[in-house]
TrEMBL record:
<feature type="binding site">
    <location>
        <position position="227"/>
    </location>
    <ligand>
        <name>Mg(2+)</name>
    </ligand>
</feature>
<feature type="active site">
    <location>
        <position position="39"/>
    </location>
</feature>
<keyword id="KW-0808">Transferase</keyword>
<feature type="binding site">
    <location>
        <position position="208"/>
    </location>
    <ligand>
        <name>substrate</name>
    </ligand>
</feature>
<feature type="binding site">
    <location>
        <position position="44"/>
    </location>
    <ligand>
        <name>substrate</name>
    </ligand>
</feature>
<dbReference type="InterPro" id="IPR001441">
    <property type="entry name" value="UPP_synth-like"/>
</dbReference>
<feature type="binding site">
    <location>
        <position position="39"/>
    </location>
    <ligand>
        <name>Mg(2+)</name>
    </ligand>
</feature>
<keyword id="KW-0460">Magnesium</keyword>
<protein>
    <recommendedName>
        <fullName>Isoprenyl transferase</fullName>
        <ecNumber>2.5.1.-</ecNumber>
    </recommendedName>
</protein>
<feature type="binding site">
    <location>
        <begin position="40"/>
        <end position="43"/>
    </location>
    <ligand>
        <name>substrate</name>
    </ligand>
</feature>
<feature type="binding site">
    <location>
        <position position="56"/>
    </location>
    <ligand>
        <name>substrate</name>
    </ligand>
</feature>
<feature type="active site" description="Proton acceptor">
    <location>
        <position position="87"/>
    </location>
</feature>
<comment type="similarity">
    <text>Belongs to the UPP synthase family. Z-FPP synthase subfamily.</text>
</comment>
<dbReference type="Pfam" id="PF01255">
    <property type="entry name" value="Prenyltransf"/>
</dbReference>
<feature type="binding site">
    <location>
        <begin position="84"/>
        <end position="86"/>
    </location>
    <ligand>
        <name>substrate</name>
    </ligand>
</feature>
<comment type="function">
    <text>Catalyzes the condensation of isopentenyl diphosphate (IPP) with allylic pyrophosphates generating different type of terpenoids.</text>
</comment>
<keyword id="KW-0479">Metal-binding</keyword>
Amino acid sequence: MRTPGKARLRNAVYGLYERRLARSLSPDRMPRHIGVIIDGNRRWARAVGDPVSRGHEAGATKISEFLDWCDEIGVKVVTVWMLSTDNLTRPAEELEPLLRIIEQTVEELASIGRWRVHPVGALDLLPGATAEVLKGAEAATQTVDGMVVNVAVGYGGRRELADAVRSLLLEEAAKGISIEELAERVDVEHIAEHLYTKGQPDPDLVIRTSGEQRLGGFLLWQSALSEFYFCEALWPDFRHVDFLRAIRNYAQRERRFGT
C-alpha cells in the first residue's frame, strides 16, 4: 500500500520531470495539426470493474483536457476520432449511451467558446438528434477565432474518400462536364478539395493510445505524410507527460515528406 509520504514524493518527482520535459520542447518544432485516435475506453472500464459506459465517460472527460494541452503549445487543428462508422454496428445497449455521451461532450466543447468545432464524418449515418447536435456546435462556434477541433463522429476513411469522389462527380456534372473529360483532368487536388477536412493542413502527427499500432481507417488520405506515435496508455489514463513525450518524439524526427 502506497503511503502518503511516498505519494507526495512521487508527485513531486513527476512534476519536476514534466516541467523539464516541457522546457525541452522547441516552439518552432510544434505540429500544426494533431490527429488522435482515442482508444481503450472499454478496456479501461473492464480493468476497474465498471460498466463500459463509465469508460466512455472517462474518455470524454479526457478530451477537453487534451485539447487544452494542444492549445497551450500552439496547435492550430486537432482531429479527435470519437466514433467510427464501424462503431455504429455495436449493440444498441452500448451505442445509445455512447451517442448521448458524444452529444454532451460536443455541446460542452462548443460552450467553452475557445475552439471552433467542425464535424467530420457521414452525418447521414447518424441518428437525427446526434447529427443536429454536431451541426449546432459548428454553427455556434463558426465565428470563434481559435483552434479548430474536428470531431470525427460516424467517421471512416474509406467512407470519406467515397463521399469526396461522389461530391466531385456531382459538382462537375452540374457544370456539364462529361465523365470522359473529368477522367482526363482530375488529379489529387480535386479530390482533396472535397474531403471533410478541405482547407485544413494535413495532420503532422497522429497519436493512438492503448498500444494498438494501426490507423484503422483514420484520415487515410490526409495522413499519407504524417508522423505516428503509439502510446501504451489507455485513453482515460493518458497523461500530460504522455502528451509531452509524443510531442518531443515528433520534434526529434527528421521529416522527409515522402522523399
